[in-house]
Amino acid sequence: MRTRAAVAVEAGKPLEVMEVNLEGPKAGEVLVEIKATGICHTDEFTLSGADPEGLFPAILGHEGAGVVLEVGPGVTSLKPGDHVIPLYTPECRQCEYCLSGKTNLCQAIRTTQGKGLMPDGTTRFSMLDGTPILHYMGCSTFSNHTVLPEIALAKVRPDAPFDKICYIGCGVTTGIGAVINTAKVEIGSRAIVFGLGGIGLNVIQGLRLAGADQIVGVDLNPAKVEMAKRFGMTDFVNPRDVSGDMVAHLVELTKGGADYTFDATGNVQVMRTALEAAHKGWGESIIIGVAPAGAEISTRPFQLVTGRVWKGTAFGGAKGRTDVPKIVDWYMDGKIEIDPMITHTLSLDEINKGFDLMHNGESIRAVVVY
Ligand code: NAD
Ligand code: DAO
Ligand code: ZN
């Protein structure tokens, strides 16, 4: 079939909206009509060329929601008409990683997904002249139609709005999951969140859900304050307003250091501050941000010797097929909020505007509605 997609032709160039060819689903695969997709910082990271694993030409986008149109041979858990959210972290429930119960990093299709290919080693997308186009994070939601492996789709309730629940495909789940699955924050905790963007705000609402007493937000952009307060931030620190040592300031503000700190900036200096602002003896610091290629983190080992713990999280530690439908229910039941974070809605033709809004710090989430 033919469909319309925003193609990342090469790094550092705007996306080009064009008609592309899409082959139907092969064994174990599913054809999905994408109804809405968020634009995440990670798409920007890859498009900019800063992602060492970025491949081109490709169809980016990994934060979508849509409807199953057709299933390939052997697909048993989905049927045409089902509403789904694509998963860049699949859940096969059979691999060593899935069965370990210790991680959400299913490895069933890791190798081919990392190469921009379907599990059989081929791509379903091509340009009208036949040039192959690669998949991205196994999702490629910047296309009106896409093909995914069955294990990379979460079936969700049909009454949930696509233009809101697409955000559960990355930002919402990553932020809330970092709090609940990775940090396992307890009621009454003190926490610091570095970076109040699309991920950090969801860390904040996760902390509120978990019953944290103090939620300190840190950002260089004061325009983020109002929204962060709305989601539960109790204190705000702009590093530019702190004249002395930032760690000492945060330790004093949290009366000895935070029980949990979260980096949602991707800046390795911030990651160090986050670790060192965690409470001596038990504080845990969770890295969510994706740092530039070649960047390294450092601290004095004594910070760990004295009980601080450094952890990282991908997709908030969520097992997609199991957890994503539950998070959709939380949204529909009013347990979590999404609507205020969708600051801009665009058409596919306007997708590059979504990247501009992100660069300028003007959007939390821009969503493309097909
Ligand atoms: P965003 O651009 O919306 O937000 C980043 C925020 O950090 C902005 O508000 C910015 O002002 C602030 N910031 C930047 N530098 C800062 C500094 N030095 N000190 C304080 N604040 C600073 O980005 P986002 O969509 O929220 O994504 C955040 C990070 O999370 C990115 O690195 C992204 O790639 C990563 N991410 C990780 C996962 C995962 O599974 N681990 C998933 C999605 C995104
Ligand atoms: O299993 O080796 C692996 C890698 C899984 C990829 C996890 C990516 C998470 C961070 C990227 C940000 C996603 C938007
Ligand atoms: Zn698996």
The CATH architecture category of the largest domain equals: Alpha-Beta Complex
List segments where confidence is low: pLDDT < 50 over at least 5 consecutive residues: none
Query: How many structural units, i.e. domains?
Result: 2
Helix content: 25-40%
What is the CATH class name of the largest domain?
Alpha Beta
Alpha plus pi helix count: 12
Question: Major beta sheet, specifics?
Answer: 7 strands, mixed
Shape, please? globular
Mean pLDDT: 97
SSE succession: EEEHEEHHEEEEHHEHEHEHEHEHEHEHE
Question: CATH H level of the largest domain: which superfamily?
Answer: Medium-chain alcohol dehydrogenases, catalytic domain
**What structural class do helix, strand and pairing data support?**
alpha/beta
Pfam family, one: ADH_zinc_N
Domain Alcohol dehydrogenase-like N-terminal: 27-115
Family: Belongs to the zinc-containing alcohol dehydrogenase family. Class-III subfamily.
Domain Alcohol dehydrogenase-like C-terminal: 198-330
